[in-house]
Amino acid sequence: MTVEHISLIRSDQTAVKVTCNIAKQMEKVNDMHRATIRVFQKKDLNTVMELWLDTNTAAHDFIGEDYWRANYDTVKQMIPDAAVYVYEDQSVKGFVGLIGNYLAGIFIEKSEQSKGIGKLLLDYIKMNNEDLLLQVYKKNSRAVQFYQREGFVVDKEQIDENTNEIELVMKWRKK
């Protein structure tokens, strides 16, 4: 691909040549068109559960990995009954789970985090919900900041009886 030159007119009517790398822009557009958000399918279960376990153990290093492993089978049974949407770009890179208006979580492959996938998934479920509720561990400051940036507010603090960790109950309402 070649670098294209585009002529622009300044307010003083003099032409200025601006170099744009069209190839890179087209690459970004093409990447966006390959990726999709779709409804969870049974074939996704093992990938989704691997993401669930990997992201929970990484994000919650203050809770022993044995806790997540002990809950693995229970969550695996619940996933097909929840509203789950996956972000797919040649393979599943992340997912979001809902039970009614309760946001059970957003889980993104570690190598794909901080690339806007979590926001895309959250925006997707916001389109079809008037309000959302979630619980997040207070020590998971990265997630707390993400949700606050996306319009969630802390409703209350409570202790998760299973882990004895403080969790925040956060709410979002469509404006």
UniProtKB/TrEMBL annotation:
Judging by the UniProt lineage, the source's domain of life is Bacteria
- EC class name: transferase
GO function term, MF aspect, one: acyltransferase activity
UniProt protein name: GNAT family N-acetyltransferase
Q: Which residues form a coiled coil?
A: none
Signal sequence, renumbered to the chain: none
Source organism? Anoxynatronum sibiricum
Q: Cite the N-acetyltransferase domain residue spans from the record.
A: 35-175
Task: State whether keyword Nuclease applies.
Answer: no
Keyword list, A-Z: Acyltransferase, Transferase
Q: Name one Pfam family in it.
A: Acetyltransf_10
EC code(s) of this entry? 2.3.1.-
The record's listing under InterPro entries reads: Acyl_CoA_acyltransferase, GNAT_dom
In the UniProt record, does the keyword Cell cycle occur?
A: no
* Gene3D superfamilies hit by this protein: 3.40.630.30
